[in-house]
Amino acid sequence: xxxxxxxxxxxxxxxxxxxxxxxxxxxxxIDSLVAFADFGDRVTVSPAEAxxxxxxxxxxxxVPIDEGxxxxxxxxxxxxxxxxxxxSPACITLEKNLPVASGVGGGSSDAAAxxxxxxxxxxxxxxxxxxxxxxxxxGADIPMCLAGRPLHARGxxxxxxxxxxxxxxxxxxxxxxxxxxxxxVFGALEKRDNAPLPCPHDFADAAALVRYxxxxxxxxxxxxxxxxxxxxxxxxxxxxxxAMLARMSGSGATCFGLFDGVGFATxxxxxxxxxxxxxxxxxxxxxxxxEANDGGN
Length: 297
Known about the structure:
There is one protein chain. The protein is of the alpha+beta class and about 300 residues long. The chain has 2 domains: about 5-160, Ribosomal Protein S5, domain 2 (2-Layer Sandwich); about 170-295, GHMP kinase, C-terminal domain (Alpha-Beta Plaits), CATH 3.30.70.890. It has helices at about 70-80, 105-120, 130-135, 140-145, 180-185, 205-215, 220-225, 230-240, 260-275, 290-295; strands at about 5-20, 30-45, 50-55, 90-95, 150-155, 160, 170-175, 245-250, 255-260, 280-285. Strands 1, 2, 3, 4, 5, 6, 7, 8, 9 and 10 form a 10-stranded mixed beta sheet that branches. The mean pLDDT is about 95.
């Protein structure tokens, strides 16, 4: 057994998100183009005398440490599948770098990273596709986060088609520091039967991706802005600092801007951070298929 295993829990970005139907179970069908940043939380697991859970990082005070945390639910799920003899006690340390309730899949990404880390620590031969099905009741975003690569997601997020060609793209993430309730955003939707995405194709470069995204939207953005007007301020800040495209991710309040190169992204992040020192601002790179195929997650 290794001394410890660390996995990145990357920010999950809904580059486009169309809400296509209200389901009879109360959830909504979505059609979304999803990619992952090279920045996020970190999960480290190590052998221990007894199970333990430690949260560090800037946003640690906002994270529940009881059984309601998806990290612990993911641990219990994998232990039940692996068996108690193999799944020995473990200390899990979550380094919380992403804002909480911010539309970038933080809790689900943390759970997926926990599953990956414990799978390695315990040497569990669990198939990731089957694990994604088992983990779906914990959170609709967990299958996407387990995939950890550019993809087209439908249903409640459980129907996943990985993309074969997707570029690395420089980006800036901005959150005004206000949590947004996902149920409240869906409740504020004015229309729930929107057209699906244009069929995602292979994107040769960032310019091709931006052209595609210009014909799409985030159907939750208007509703989220009505609940949290500062989201509009973050979008304006990204656009004013040179973003090729600025959009809210998920149910908000985190927004992203896509930039034509790391220099432009870094300069924009520095400018926004100076103007709004209380905001979460992070220059990052959206990881394309090459890095995903090379084991970037």
